[in-house]
Amino acid sequence: MDGSLTGLGPNSWVAHNYKHLLNEDCQYYETFNGVACKPTVSMRVVRFRSVRLQRKVVHIANMDDSTLAKYTKGDEWAYRADPDNFAQIAYQELHERCYTVPVVTGSKYYFHFGAGNEWTIMEVSVNEKFNKTDKPIYFINKFEEKRHAILVDVNKTI
Question: Are 104 and 45 in contact (CB under 8 A)?
Fold first, then answer.
């Protein structure tokens, strides 16, 4: 991308308007109803597989320090509890059989699939464009003692 659409310069990124992508490096643009990111970060795709659920939507919110700095410690929990702060991404039943989630490198995300004990095993994989020089991506999920494993393989691409 040459940056002419957003004015952010070459190698900037544009994506669908998912709330969890908004942070200090990625802003909403009304002109194309999407999110544009500075070239200092990258967008990648993460897939959640092997999640055996009744619900077919993953809820994901941005939990970057810059986002949470707007809240006091008690209000941070209110932020997590407010469904308006979450993007909802549907399960891809036909081809992928997974949740395909766009993410911004260097960001932290809180995710859940609904209420209660949601899953016991989950596989997380990244797309082939992810490279070892990308900034890390952090995922936060509530603790459930019945869980068995989260399998992450940085060498396995999708």
Answer: no
Q: What is the mean pLDDT of residues 96-117?
A: 83
User: Residues 149, 124: contact at Cβ < 8 Å?
Assistant: no
Q: What is the DSSP string of 36-49?
A: EE-TTS-EEEEEEE
- Per-residue pLDDT at 63: 92
Any idea how long the chain is?
A: 158
Q: What is the chain's percent helix, strand, coil content, to nearest 5?
A: 10, 40, 50
Q: What is the pTM of this model?
A: 0.81
Token output for 151: 């399998």
Is 57 exposed, middle or buried, given 0-12, 13-18 or 19+ CB atoms closer than 10 A? middle
Average pLDDT over residues 3-12: 85
